[in-house]
């Protein structure tokens, strides 16, 4: 159980300025200022994917699930005559369960792409996908510390800003607007649009070869973006990879240009690379730029294999963990965190920058199918949670959705979302900068 405690406490330390003489124990040791009552459940000694029952308890107006406690009417914590604070519920076990991805590692459910599906998750069953529960558990611990130490515990901010935003762009398609958008237009009788897109393509200016346009939108926000390039062009088991060749001078020129202007270049691991170290390493090398992070194409993070692959390739971070079906918090946490290596029972060196919202989630026929005017009312509560807990909002907006030829009103939606977070005082960071901020915290 010490493994659980050490893993959760590490992340708790990243979020708050804690007392230098912090005394906190996972167990009733009789002398620590903070003592957390551990569960008597033997759940973590088995390989069961999900707890049998859930107990809900209210905290500051929000009902929180506890997965390893019996239902009681006790207060969250009490202070004894010696000034020690006893936390009555095992928030450590519940936090570890969610943050580590236990249900995904031990769960057998997979979709056609080998992904753990949203419908199989506790987030879906109990409808807490837009609540960062671990941050609420940490809030309980924070208040118990404030009671024990008699002082205010402050959250760590982002260069003085209340929360951070990472604008990320998966570069899947640069050369096929004429085909994907043009041919359906022609079939509907809009020959003019087809000819326009086709002639643009023939001139080497396909409508989706628009990275300068993406950069222009970022400049308007005074932001730098993270561009995930897909180095594999060949299809994989019938699934498409990139429509461009990463090695061509025109693509290499764009990579160099973006990097020279302060944007981050990252790897978009292709179909199948999530379980193949040599393939992912080759793809990383083929970008011919400094690469610190990865996001798998179609978010194909394999809960069993992908972490080991990323560790072996030396990647610093991943940003694949978001459910394509829903926006929110796949691991119930709104900060970067280090992945857990179940095979070796240890915290990994690889960080995860959780993916909160992907453009395709909003209107794909298999996903939410929101109308443009429904988007902001739907996602605003999630954004408010991130701001409340001083977290990171990670947005994925594909380059083709800055044009009129993919997501309906895609450019307008991107502007509306980013204007909202800008007005709320966010700090725009690249993915690597957001992770590096946590590294600097580690050293402090």
Provide a descriptive summary of the structure in words.
It holds the Pfam family DUF7033. This is DUF7033 domain-containing protein. One of its GO terms (biological process) is carbohydrate metabolic process. This protein is of the alpha/beta class and 444 residues long. The protein folds into two domains: 148 residues, no CATH class; 246 residues, Glycoside hydrolase/deacetylase (TIM Barrel, Alpha-Beta Barrel), CATH 3.20.20. It has 16 helices and 16 strands. It is elongated, with a radius of gyration of 23 Å.
Strand content: 5-15%
So how many helices? 16
What general outline do the C-alpha atoms trace? elongated
The poorly predicted ranges are: none
CATH topology of the largest domain: TIM Barrel
Q: What summary fits the major beta sheet?
A: 6 strands, parallel
Q: Features of this protein?
A:
444 residues; TIM Barrel; DUF7033 domain-containing protein; 2 domains; alpha/beta; 16 helices; 16 strands; 4-stranded mixed beta sheet; Glyco_hydro/deAcase_b/a-brl; 36% helix; DUF7033; 6-stranded parallel beta sheet
């Amino acid at each position: 159980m010490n493994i659980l405690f050490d893993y959760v406490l590490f992340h708790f330390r990243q979020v708050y300025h804690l007392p230098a003489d912090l005394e906190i124990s996972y167990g009733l040791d009789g002398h620590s200022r903070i003592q957390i009552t551990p569960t008597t459940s033997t759940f973590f000694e088995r390989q069961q994917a999900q707890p049998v029952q859930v107990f809900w308890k209210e905290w500051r107006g929000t009902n929180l699930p506890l997965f390893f406690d019996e239902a009681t009417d006790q207060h969250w914590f009490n202070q004894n005559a010696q000034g020690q604070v006893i936390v009555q519920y095992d928030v450590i076990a519940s936090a570890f369960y969610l943050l580590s991805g236990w249900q995904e590692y031990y769960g057998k459910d997979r979709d056609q792409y080998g992904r753990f599906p949203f419908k199989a998750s506790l987030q879906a069953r109990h409808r807490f996908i837009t609540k960062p529960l671990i941050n609420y558990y940490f809030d309980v611990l924070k208040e118990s510390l404030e009671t024990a130490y008699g002082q205010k515990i402050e959250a760590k901010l982002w260069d003085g800003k209340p929360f951070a935003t990472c604008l990320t762009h998966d570069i899947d398609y640069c050369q096929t607007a004429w085909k994907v958008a043009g041919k359906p237009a022609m079939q509907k009788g809009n020959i003019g649009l087809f000819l326009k897109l086709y002639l643009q393509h023939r001139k080497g200016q396909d409508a989706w070869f628009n990275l300068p346009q993406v950069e222009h939108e970022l400049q308007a926000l005074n932001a730098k973006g993270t561009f995930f390039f897909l180095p594999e062009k060949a299809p994989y088991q019938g699934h498409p990879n990139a429509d461009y060749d990463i090695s061509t001078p025109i693509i290499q020129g764009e990579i160099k240009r973006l990097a020279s202007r302060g944007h981050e270049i990252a790897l978009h691991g292709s179909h199948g690379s999530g379980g193949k170290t040599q393939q992912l390493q080759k793809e990383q090398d083929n970008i011919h730029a400094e690469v610190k992070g990865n996001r798998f194409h179609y978010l194909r993070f394999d809960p069993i294999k992908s972490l080991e692959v990323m560790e072996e390739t030396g990647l610093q971070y991943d940003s694949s963990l978001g459910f394509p079906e829903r926006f929110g918090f796949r691991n119930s946490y709104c900060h970067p965190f280090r992945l857990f290596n179940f095979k070796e029972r240890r915290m990994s060196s690889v960080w995860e920058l959780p993916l909160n919202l992907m453009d395709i989630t909003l209107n794909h026929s298999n996903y939410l199918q929101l109308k443009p005017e429904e988007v902001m009312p739907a996602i605003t509560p999630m954004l408010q949670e991130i701001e409340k807990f001083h977290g990171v909002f990670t947005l994925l907006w594909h380059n083709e959705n800055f044009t009129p030829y993919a997501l309906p009103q895609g450019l307008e939606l991107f502007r509306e979302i980013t204007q909202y977070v800008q007005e709320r005082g966010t700090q725009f960071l690249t993915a690597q900068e957001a992770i590096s901020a946590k590294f600097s915290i580690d050293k402090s």
